Amino acid sequence: SAVISQKPSRDICQRGTSLTIQCQVDSQVTMMFWYRQQPGQSLTLIATANQGSEATYESGFVIDKFPISRPNLTFSTLTVSNMSPEDSSIYLCSVQSEDYEQYFGPGTRLTVT
Amino acid sequence: GDSVTQMEGPVTLSEEAFLTINCTYTATGYPSLFWYVQYPGEGLQLLLKATKADDKGSNKGFEATYRKETTSFHLEKGSVQVSDSAVYFCALGYGNKLVFGAGTILRVKS
Predict the structure, then answer these.
(1) CB contact (8 A) between residue B101 and residue A42
(2) Chain B residues within an 8 Å CB radius of A4
């Protein structure tokens, strides 16, 4: 299984600002995913990020709000833009192994005040 | 669309009790099924999986059987420990897409 790290682990931000979350994997992977886990709720897929192409966003999520970069096969960033209190969530990245198992990072706990 | 329904929690058990967490799914095709566990303050970990009907996934004393006829993937453990206290998520997946249930909180008392 892959080892995944995320930075920051948590942050408190003011509304209207932006935060960029980093995800680093210890091996090269084709697909990386970004999820949101709102307080007390399950995980919702935000987008899928392939290296060298635009991210694919799920219904309800747009690139202007959640721009994603994928500069190489071990790294990705998710930016939460123009934040509001409703963006307070845990944001998780994950990667997929060759046998379609997904492994998750520890998450970034974001609080917007 | 595809969906996963889990029993509501929290589930509170005494140590060494038998655990069942129910999970049923709705799917248009033939997904793989997963159980993930999230310990306090940590990220999600894959607990077990099953890729086709009648497969049994098992890990750390936990088991779940892929039941196509009842569209279920119930999680069981014969004797829980305090260290099993966590949130358990059932999920279905096609290729690179995962759909998660709402999660079930398990609390085990000593």
Answers:
(1) yes
(2) 43
